[in-house]
Amino acid sequence: MNTSTAAQAMPQSWLAALWKDADMLVRFALIAGLVLVGATLLAPWLSPFGPDQQSLLSRLRPPYGFEGAVAGHWLGTDELGRDILSRVLHALRVTLGIGLAGAFIGMMLGTALGILAGLRGGRLDDLIAGAIDIQIAVPFTLIALLAVAILGGDLVVLIAVLGVAGWETFARVVRGEVMKLRHQPFIEAAHVAGASRWRIAFRHLLPSLVSPLVVMFALSFSQIVLLESTLSFLGLGIRPPTASLGSMIGQGRDYMPSAPWLVIVPSLLILLLTLVVQLLGDFLRDRADIRLQHR
Amino acid sequence: MKKLMLSAVIAATLGAQPALAQELQVGVQNMNNYLDPGSDHSNAGSQFYYNSFDTLIDRDHAGSGDFVPGLATSWEIITPQMIEFTLRDNVQFHDGSRMTAEDVVFSLNRMFSPTYPPYLVRKRDRLDNFTRAEATKEGKVRVYTARPEPIFETLLSMQQTMIVPKDYLMGLSGHPQVDEVSDYEAFGLAPVGTGPYRITEFVPGERLVYERFGDFWGKAAPYERVTMRRIPETVSRITALRSGEVDLITNLAPDQLSLIDKEPSLKTAGSVTPLFHVMIMNENHPELKDPRIRRALSLAIDRDLLNKGLWLGMAEVPSTHTMPEFGELYMPELETFRYDPEEAKRLLKEAGYDGAEITYDTASAYYTNGLLAAQAIMEMWNAVGVNGTINVIESSTTCDPKLMTRNWSNPMYFADPFGSFGVMWGPGGPSESCGRFNTDEAYLDSWDRFRFSETVEVRRTAYAELMAHIERNPPVLPLYRPYEAWGMRADMDWKPLPSHIPYVLDFRAGRVTPASN
Is the CB of residue A60 less than 8 Å away from at least one CB of chain B? Predict the structure, then answer.
């Protein structure tokens, strides 16, 4: 087999193996995940209208099939006559982006601090462990509310604030793992061979942390999506007219009795999004965990 | 015996019903953090004062709306600069003390010569002509003005001239014989008046409880107890009403009315409110100094579309800052504000607008449809090339020098252009005091004739001049007179009364018919 044939065969076999290992639920999650990501990437082309395009004389029209529906607005219109389908497609982009960026920031921060604390020990470890305990003790929703209220609901601020959410979970688990691993023979052998701390951290420790990090990333992503939704619901998230799934629910809540589709559509998407990420996270954890593979 | 006992139980139950009926639970959208009729002129505060406080001159709110005796049994304008009041006997404050001429003089002078900073703006914006109040030897009270006052009764029947107890207020903190700032601040949390309901509990921004005041000088209040609870979300208020948790709710938008009206046990009442929802623009913000930019922002807004879309056509869009309630000074023939997107584009180009961000501040739920209107306005601005963004902020930014534009309201505090436009845009008023509106000599000259002339034609001409100034150099755009509605149990009867200032929840005798149970 030449090199190019191998390169073509590898993704096929990887995907095929992934699909073969997956149960029905995970297969559903894989398909749903691909659809969600596809919809996110293609939102500008899939949307029949601009996400903020208003039609004040066609407000609160129900989805297709219900009495009073307007042609072209498949999922109905909102309180300003904006097309719900176009809006949720763009909102999904924002929510997914915030969730991924937030979870990534949290993971990087938490992993770095966890490795630092686990490897260095001493006062630095005490300091980081203390910070972890403090963050665990204080409900993060309160911190986020305060931070967004003071700094404003700018997208960058929101991502930064949400990124800080969950760093302590990463740091706590990574610190524990590193403390456990640092006395393992392969780490001590690396020490004896003269490997630097950084080399040990990146070459020897990080690969062993992939499995818990994947699970925590999935958990953190779901939490951030829900936290962003909470902040937006409370009016502290994304500034209108930009929509996230949470802000759509927040702005639609006043119309729940008369126009429930304003809330149902984005709520179902949040449910689907978090479910997909959780299922895939669990699945990938099982695949990445060597111990589980040998059972 | 059993029959006798059963009858007794039924009789007791039936007997208890009127007491139950005397409770009223109200879900309000907004509630302030203080209750002081002197300093407050907010729409949120206006809801609450009339139940607990009186003025010297009242109005026949259930009837003609004419002036009627309040805490004064009669009054006489002795000279164009002095009015004399004969006070009502046997009036008691809620703290048990008896109202005296000294209390009346203190209450009025605290507004005419204020030492408490929040009263200064109220003095400047509506009571500037008043110099002092003093008691005569006969126990009457005389009020003096600097210049002949054409609308004595109107101004002395305003919420800001409600009477408060001197000794109680001064004794709230510090020296009991001195009115200190801390006394006024404490009074705002524990207010005492002479009205038919005394305030027995006030949790700032959350809850207000009134109880019937047994020693009220007038007709007894129909409710034994009224509880006002803040429920900011519309849907939560509607749910509370539908579940029977509250009997009456405030601030319903027209598109929510059918939800309530379709239920046989509920109903709505509403009216076009004597108030404008307005957009204000900071003349002194560097990006908005050029009046052509502000004119463009105003011309770009299709207010008729806002009315049709957001208010289902039930609001009223004015051509100028005027209302039919102004009587002879109602001037709909003026066209100060209009929709002309092409002219807006032209002005922006001429002014060299460079696409700078123009922010529009709004609270999320203070004004009915406020946030929706803000978003619609951004779309309209965008259509003419304005880079507008919404800044959702719960605190008031009307005095923030960084303010560019925002929503606000111009209520009709009394039925005269002075009571609506004048209070907000007069010299020294809240707009000029906050540094976002400027007056010049020509404006002041027109203002003087408008404010003090006793000739209607002179006032009309001067008002037209003021409107021409506003058109050339706009600090404000009245969007519409909103249609405000209240939801309630079908078996009670209450409606907003046109002679009140906007939003007053009047639960005095004859103004509300309690539910039967």
Answer: yes
Measured distance CA(A245)–CA(A89) in Å, rounded: 9
CA B450/CA B463 separation, integer angstroms: 6
A254 touches chain B (CB under 8 A): yes
Give ipTM to 2 decimals.
0.75
Q: Which pLDDT value is given to residue A155?
A: 79
Confidence of residue A11 (pLDDT cuts 50, 70, 90): low
- Among residues B488, B501, B517, the alpha carbon closest in space to that of B260 is found at B488
- Smallest CA–CA distance, residue B372 to chain A, in Å, is 7
CATH of segment(s) A102-289: 1.10.3720.10
Backbone dihedral region of A60: left (phi > 0), alpha (psi from -120 to 50 degrees) or beta? left
pTM: 0.80
Enter the DSSP assignment of A239.
P
User: Is B306 touching A (CB cutoff 8 A)?
Assistant: yes
Task: Note whether B375 contacts A239, CB cutoff 8 Å.
Answer: no
In 10 A of CB B95, how many CB atoms? 14
Lowest mean pLDDT among B18-22, B132-136, B225-229, B489-493: B18-22
Q: How far is B389 from chain A (nearest CA, A)?
A: 8
Q: What is the pLDDT of residues A67-87, one digit of tens each?
A: 989 989 999 999 999 999 999
CB contact under 8 A, B392 and A239: yes
Strands B405-411 and B275-281: antiparallel
Judged by CB atoms within 8 Å, which residues 389-428 of B form the interface with A? 389-392, 394
CB contact under 8 A, B390 and A239: yes
Judge: A80–B233 Cβ closer than 8 Å, yes or no.
no
Q: Which residues of B touch A154 (CB under 8 A)?
A: none
B-chain residues near A59 (CB < 8 A): 255, 309-310
What number is the average pLDDT over the span B93-121? Answer: 96
Q: State which H helix or E strand residue A117 sits in.
A: helix A84-120
Contact B255 A59 (CB under 8 A): yes
For residue A81, the chain B residues in CB contact (below 8 A) are: 309
B486 and B494 in contact (C-beta within 8 Å)? yes
Alpha-carbon distance of B217 to B195, in angstroms, equals: 8
**Min Cα–Cα distance to chain A from B392, Å:** 7
Interatomic CA distance for residues B194 and B168, integer angstroms: 13
What CA–CA distance (Å, rounded) separates A188 from A195? 10
Q: How far is A19 from A26, CA to CA, in rounded Å?
A: 9
CA distance A131 to A136: 9
Per-residue pLDDT reduced to its tens digit, A84-112? 999 999 999 999 998 889 899 999 999 99
Per-domain boundaries in chain A: 102-289
**A233 within 8 A of A250, measured Cβ to Cβ:** yes
Strands B141-145 and B72-79 turn out to be unpaired
B274-312 pLDDT, tens digit per residue, is 999 999 999 999 999 999 999 999 999 999 999 999 999
Among A182-191, B165-174, B233-242, where is mean pLDDT lowest?
A182-191
Which positions in chain A touch B373 (Cβ < 8 Å)? none
Element (H, E) at B488: strand B483-489
Q: Which of A79, A150, A253 to mutate to test the interface with B (most CBs of B within 10 A)?
A: A79
Tokens 């095929």, located at residue = A16
| Cβ–Cβ contact A59 with B under 8 A | yes
